[in-house]
Each structure stands twice: as C-alpha cells, then as structure tokens.
Amino acid sequence: LNAYWHRHLIYLFQEKNQAALDDLNFIIKWNKNNADAYLSKAEIYRNQGNNSLAIINCTLAVKCNPTDDYIYFRRAELLEEEEELLLAMDDYAKCFQYNPKRTDALMKHGIHFFEKSVWSIAFQDFTAVIKEDPSNVQARIYRGRTYAKRQQYKNAMEDFSAAVHLDPSNWLAFYCRGCILRKIDPKRALQDFSVSVLLNDSFENLSSFIHRGILYTEQCQWSLAIFDFENALALDRGIVLAYINIGLILLLHLDHYYEAIRQFSKAIEVDPTNVRAYICRAQAYHQLHNLQRALRDINRAIHLFPTESYLYIIRGQYLIEMKEYKLASFCILQVSEMGEVSLKTSPVQQALVRSFCQNHSKAIECLLEVIASQPAPSIFVLLGKIQMKAKKTKDAVESFQQALKILTSSAKILPNTFEAAEIYYFMGLCYMEQVSLLQAYEAFSLAVKVYSNYSDAFYQRGLCRMELKQAKCIQDFNRALAINPKHFQAYLSRAAYYGSKGRYSKAILNCNEAIKIHPDSVRAYLYRGTLKYHNKTYKNAIEDLTKTIDLDKICILAYYNRAICYHQIKDFRKALKDYGILLLLESSKEIVLTVLINRALLYMELEDYSNALEDFKEASLCNPSNSEIYQTIGICYHRLEQFEEAVNSFTQVLKLDPFSLDAYVSRGNSYMEYGHEAGNTQAQKDFLKALHLNPKCVKARICLGYNLQAFGKFQKAWNQFTVAIDIDPKCHIAYDGRAVVCLQMGDTFAAFQDTNAALKLTTSAQLLTNRGVINQFMGHLNCAMKDYQQAISINPGYALAYFNAANIYFHHRQFSQANSYYSKALQLDPRNESAVLNRAITNTLLQNIEEAKEDFEKAICLCPFSAAVYFNRANLYRTLKQYELAEKDISTALSIQPNDALMYKLRADVRGKMGFSEEAIADYKQAISIQEMIDAM
C-alpha cells in the first residue's frame, strides 16, 4: 500500500489526477480507515472544481480520524466555497476544539458571527484567539469593534490601543480608536485619524478624511477641514456630505458665496433629491440677493419634503422680501394647517400620517414614544420601515433587530412565520442600500429559510448575488417566479442576467413574459429593443424602441438606441431624424456629445463632410480637450479640399497631444495637397517628426516615400518603401508605392514583382489595375486586359479599370467595345477628360458623328487648354470636309502647343483643300523645320 501511496504522489506531480485517484481507491479498498487517502482524494476533487465529492471525502476522513483539526479546517473551507456557512462554522469550531493553536479557524468563526451581528459568540471567539495568541492584531481590532457594538467603549479602547501597540502600521486600528475618541478627546481622535490616513490614503480609508474634516470644522480650522473633504471627494466624487460641508464652511465662515453655490450644485448633481443641498444653496443665493433662484431652490426642497414647516416659513420670508405678500400669507396658512394633528388619532396612526406626508422625523418620534411604553415587534417593524423611507438604514436595521430580539425572547426558536421572514427581508433591503452585500445576502437567506414561499426575498437575494457576480442568482430568480409567476421584476432581472452573459435570445424571452404582465412597461420594451440590437435583429429592435417612444415621448435612451439601429440598417434619414430629436431634448452634456459624434460619423459615411464637420465642431465645443475630435475635423477639412483649415486642425491636435503620430502624418498629407514645393517641404518635416517619435511608424514611412517621389528622389523614396516593408511585411500599400517608384525608375519587372506581392496580401481593384498598367508597359496586353476585367469583377464601380480596358480595345481597333467601356468609365467618373476625348475619337472612327461632336464639346468644357482635343476635332471636321472649322480648331491647338510638326502638317492639308496655297506651303515648311530640329536633337 505504501508503494501505491508514493506512486499516487508521483502521478499528482505529473498532473495525472485519474491515475492518482485509481491508486487512492485501491488503498481505500484495502484500508478503509486511511484518512490521508480520503484527504488526498478531497484535494484532487477540489482542484477539479467538484467540491461536493471533496466534502464527502473530507467527511469520510473525519470518520477515520475524528480528532484531526486539519481535516475539519479543510472541510470548512470547502463548505464556505459552497456557501454552506453554518456547517462551515461548525467545522471551524471543531478545528479549534481539537487544536487550540488553530486560531485561524476560530478567527473565521468569529468574523462570520460578527458580520451576522451575533456579538456574544463573536466576542467569545475573539477573546479565545487573544488568549491563545495575545499578539493577534486582527483579533484585537474585531473584539474592539464588538465591544463598540455592545457600547462597551472603554474595553473597545483598550483593544484598539493594544492593536496599535502590537502593529503601529495598522491603519484600521487607528481609525477605530479615533471614532471612539471623537467626542471625549477630539485632539487624540485627530491624531489617530491623521496616522490612519498617513498609513492608508486610499478609497478604503475614505471615512478617516470625512471624520477628520468634521473634527477640524468643530475646531474652526476651516482650511484644514476643506482640504480633508476635498481629499475625500478625490477618492469618491459621489459623497454629497463632503460637498455640503465645504459649501457650508464657505457660506457661513469664509463668505465665499459663489464658490459655496458651486459646491451645493455639485451635491445636487450627485443626489438630486438631497433637500439639505437645496436649502443651503437657497441661503447662498439669498446672501447674494438673488431671490428668484433662492425661491426656486426652496420650492424644490418643499417639493421633496413637503411636511417640513420651516421650509414654508423660509419661503414666506423670501416672498415677503420680493413683495409677494399674498403668496407669503398663503405659506403662513399652510404652516398653521400642518400643525393641526387630530388628538383623537392613536400615536401609530399619527406616525403613519406624518410618514405619508414625508415628515419622517415626527413619525419616528411618535413611534419612539409608543415603544417606550409598549415595545412590540410590529411597532419596531413599522419604525424600521419609516426609518428606511427616511434613508436612515442603520437605525432601521437596529429597529428590526429589536423586533427579532422580542420575537426570540418569547420562544427559544424563531417562529417560521411571514412576520419573522419580513423582518429579515427589510434588514436585507437596508444592507443593500448600504451596499453591504454579504450581510444583505445573509438576511435574505434567513428570510427564505424562515418562510420558504417568500418570492420577493428570493428575488432580492438574486439581485444581491448578481452584484456579487454569483451565477446562482439565476436560481433565485427561477424560485421567485415559481412561487409568483407574475413577478414582473424577476423576469426583467433574469433578462438582465442573460443579457450580461450574451444569451440574448433567452433574455428576449424573459422580456416577452414581462410585457405580458405589464403591456405598457417602458422599461421592458426599451430593454427588449436593446437586446434585439445586440442580437443583430435591428428591424425588430426598432419596433420595440418605437413602442417605447410611443409610451414615453421623451425617453432619451429609446431615441438614441433607435438611431443606432437605423444607422446599422443604413436607413440614414431616420437615424439623422432621431439624432436631431435627441439634440432638441434636454439631454445631458455627455449624451449631447455622444450624439454629435455619432451623427457626424454617419455624415462621413454618407460622404457629407460639410455636415459632419459642423457636428464635430459643435462636439469640440462640448469637449475642447479631446484631440481625437480635432483629428476628425482635420480629416473632414481634407476631404472637403480645405487644406489650410485641415492643417490648422491637425496643429490643434498636436497642441493637445504633441506625440500624436496620426496628427503629424495627416498634417503632412494636407501640406502635400498644397501643390507647391514649400508645402511638400513642410509635409516632409511632419513625416520626419513622426518617424523621430516612432521609427517603426509604417504610415509615416509610406507618406515620406510618396513625398520623396514628388520631389523626384526616386531612390530615396524606394528606400522608405523598402524600410516600411521590412517593418511590416504584410503592408500592401508599401508594396504598391514601391511598385510605382520602380515604374518611374524604368524597372518594370521590379514594379511587377512588388504589385504581385501586394496582391498576395490583398486583392483590390486598384492593385489589379496597377498591375494591368505594368503589363501594358511590358507589352503584355492580354495579361493587362485580364487584370482590368478582374478588377471590374471585384469592384464594378472602379472607373479607372474600365478606362484602361477601353484603351486596350481601342489599341486592338475593337472600337465598339472601347466605346462601351469609355461610357461606363464616364458614368462612374463624369469629369475624366481623357475618357471623354478617347470616346470622341472612337465615335469619330465609328462614324458616330453627332456623338463625337458632343464628346469633343464636353472635353473642351472639362479641359479648355488641351491641344489634343482641338487637334482631334479638327481631324473630324476635315473628314466631314468642314475645312473652315477644321482650320480654326487646328490654329487654336497650335496657339496652345506651337512647336508640333504634325499639327502644322494637318493645317497645311486643310489650307490646301481650302485653296490657300501660300499658307499651306508655309505650314509645310514650318512642319519640316520643326521635324528636322527634333531629329537633330
């Protein structure tokens, strides 16, 4: 058996788990009391993710060796992973029982009951740990916190002080001690918070900044207080309290009213329902004598909290100062009516009425009076609910715990009733509000344990598990729906879960069920539409989003998502309409910016660069520090051939981001479009700067190559394209550029090889056309024609391929085919003067006289200074024996291109036909003279 044991260890080292299991099973077959074998099996199953079998093997190991602490600890860890917490805690307790040195087990046991607020057990565990290991800092801190929870502050102080002594670098110990010392010894509390912050100034220790800021405020050290609150805000921009505290210091003590208003406004942005922020801002406006805005903020506060009489009094004061006496008197009447509460109603009824009127504090006072004389679970539950409405979740939790305490005092075991389950449910909601997800999960679990048909508790536990990224959340949603098939929120949450996992079809089915329950739910239609978008069924998504808009005409998300769907299906007109509506609605700055960018990109897709430019300009006003927007503005200017403005935009990009390679390359390309040497020189500087920043920037290399080509420096251009190919052997643009340079240098074979290399990387109409041109240079006209035909098959909209193919047909005197291809080229590119001229010549040869005349007229309109156009039309007129028109055109051609022997000969022929012998002889002589001069050269 020892051999099997050692062999299984070798298998484990070789990661042959099945072979190892086989050996362990053999050992167990002959020795059923081998605890080590069971433990080893458990470890293998745990590594395989099969915790259930691992737990079973640990249990068998326990039976073999019931006093082995290590086995209990391993099983407890497995049970924790399976969320069987009560069983896990039992194992940790047994682990410590059999080995008092295992303080780690007892710590886990104590922390669990501490988080469940079972203070007595937690206290016993931490005390036992400290007894065994007096230097255990974590145990000291937890026991101190337990003492604090039990209001034994002196004992708590001793534990925190001991923790500080044992570990002077523990920030939590200083923080906890500072919290206790806040009222009794503020100076020492400040010291503790300062040390805590010094040790840990991250988000984890945000509360230290807040508490220290409050202490500084109490000591009138305003600048230090503001500094601490600002530090807290740097860690979390969502702390309303910090904004309000800064604002109050500025308002009440430093007289900086405008800055105070700005702080209160930030608080309102974070929490638009914070009454205190509105009241404080109203007071700041009042100090500045801006009564209209002060009144508006007080009205908002009253709207949020209409049962507070002092708000009506403040409003009345402002109205008196504004000389609105009737309205002020109405406010006073409201206050007097609010004070009339019937004495015949019971205190509980009064509390309910006050709570309904949002006067939660008065309602809480009424219930506290009742509790003082008659503490009943139902009263505590009602108090907790009102405290929840008042956002006093910590107080609410304490009220619910008191209710549970009374329920358990009458019976040793908590009764399995809905009343008890509801208490746990409300506690869970409080913990959710406090973002204490593990405690919330425990509370909801206890609720469903006490009352197994509590669908809302299962639903809330599912939400909690979703927040904790636990896949088991879907089981809770399923259980909630099994209990209550009409649970609308459960269907939507299940849809959200499936949507987050990319299972859009299942998510859509859940939305369908939700819509059956609430056919007019905006959320359900909006979410289903969004899911259909992700599922790429855009038309169906549009239907749902349209239904959402029918239900809520100002639903910004519906318009936005529908616009994106229209964009996806290329229905640009409707997409533009929805984007326009979004800009008309009172959207936030972020949404406006996103809409402007999306609409501009849509315009670019439509090649409407003017409108795209306007939207990007507007977007740049919303976000002036975004270099990408200016980069795109530059591209729009470039496409609109406004090259100077493009250069300015790219320069702005470089001001914002001096290391932007794209900006340098784009600005260089815009300089190249200036069409003069100075522009090319500036372009070269930009390309070189880009390469200085990143010598491996292929785009900059290619552009520099084209720039050098424009300067006629073909060898240097060839070098740049070659370097680009070395950097990125799959860059077909570099091969294409080098091919063009090779062709200009007369090396047609090298150009042919480079174009073939580019075509191996990607097949495009442009590259095929380029290879066709090279084949023409090499005299391989059949191969050239094949390339042009293939280019046309790949991209039937590529005009140059038709034009070059037509030239080959013309060369082979296939004039009908040539004429057809020239016509197709002109359909795609009506401003191609060469195609117009060639078609005119073809029509002349085909005797299509009228069509030829029309084409010559078009060619002259497109290129009025082309001698070739006048020369060829003169030939046409000579063929038609219209010698006067022919003589006029050839004379115009000679005025444009005066030293052409062929033109002089043609004019001599025409003049001879017209009977102008002397002029004809003079032209013949001039033609001979020019030809002799050319031959001599």
UniProtKB/TrEMBL annotation:
PANTHER family: TETRATRICOPEPTIDE REPEAT PROTEIN 6, UDP-N-ACETYLGLUCOSAMINE--PEPTIDE N-ACETYLGLUCOSAMINYLTRANSFERASE SPINDLY-RELATED
Keywords, ordered alphabetically: Repeat, TPR repeat
Source taxon at top rank: Eukaryota
Species name: Chelydra serpentina (Snapping turtle)
This protein's encoding gene: TTC6
Organism classification: Eukaryota, Metazoa, Chordata, Craniata, Vertebrata
PROSITE patterns: TPR, TPR_REGION
Keyword flag Repeat: yes
TPR repeat intervals: 137-170, 275-308, 377-410, 421-454, 488-521, 593-626, 627-660, 698-731, 765-798, 799-832, 867-900
UniProt name for this protein: Tetratricopeptide repeat domain 6
Presence of keyword Repeat: yes
